[in-house]
Specification:
The protein has 84 residues and is mainly alpha-helical. It contains four helices and two strands.
Length: 84
């Protein structure tokens, strides 16, 4: 989601930032070596696909593959999408 600057108070931004980094740490800890490659590929695929834009009624929409990432990564989806 894209929000214009100055709409959300700075204290809310700081709280969301802290919560996000805590979630990334908590959900991404104790990774198995085999998971790193799969999660990296999911993050890169999600990022590349999100660069493709489709025009829709005066604006553009981009696909994120977030649902597929959630299915394939499970609880590790949050750090993967955060990295993407």
């Amino acid at each position: 989601m894209h929000i214009a600057d100055g709409i959300v108070p700075a204290t809310w931004c700081a709280a969301a930032h802290t919560l996000s980094w805590t979630a990334v740490y908590w959900l991404g800890r104790r990774l198995e070596t085999e998971e790193v490659v799969r999660l990296g590929m999911l993050a890169s695929t999600t990022f590349v696909v999100s660069l493709i834009h489709f025009p829709l009624g005066g604006t553009s929409v981009h696909i994120g593959l977030y649902g597929l990432t959630g299915i394939l990564a499970g609880r590790r989806a949050f750090p993967v999408i955060f990295a993407a």
